[in-house]
Amino acid sequence: MANAVIERAELVLFPVVAAALIDGEGRVLVQQRPPGKMMAGLWEFPGGKLEPGETPEAALIRELHEELGITVSAASIVPTAFASERLGERHLLLLLYLCRTWSGTPRALDAVAIDWVAPADLHALAMPPADLPLIGLLERLI
Ligand SMILES: Nc1nc2c([nH]c(=O)n2[C@H]2C[C@H](O)[C@@H](COP(=O)(O)OP(=O)(O)OP(=O)(O)O)O2)c(=O)[nH]1
What we know:
InterPro entries: MutT-like, Nudix_hydrolase, NUDIX_hydrolase-like_dom_sf, NUDIX_hydrolase_CS, NUDIX_hydrolase_dom. Helix content is 23%, strand content 32%.
């Protein structure tokens, strides 16, 4: 019992924000994680960690600008789903937003590559474990 209490106290939640950008044909943008990063080569939704003092929405707008070179307004990102997954010593809470409008053309500024994929085709991509439950949700939502 004491051990269980200690384990709970030491567990650190790791919030990460990500966006499913949807284009006019109902496809979702995914990007491939670069070499040297954890889970290199896997396809993910653009996004990342929160900086100290940042709201999830501000972090997502910043990450989309840094990673894709696009500008997104707070009104354009809709909180939609989350995933919860053990990630090494921490526990990932992946907060997924939908976004259908932005300005600029997405470019792979951080990732190896970006691609636009129909939600049903996400099943065929190698994605992080946390993302897998989100695919079926996106198929129904988009
Ligand atoms: N962006 C993103 N991260 C994901 C997804 N699924 C998933 O498990 N993750 C994990 C991978 C990483 O452990 C973590 C995101 O951290 P990161 O290191 O990529 O964040 P970052 O962009 O702030 O990276 P950095 O600049 O600090 O290198 O979340 C996803 O769909 N999108």
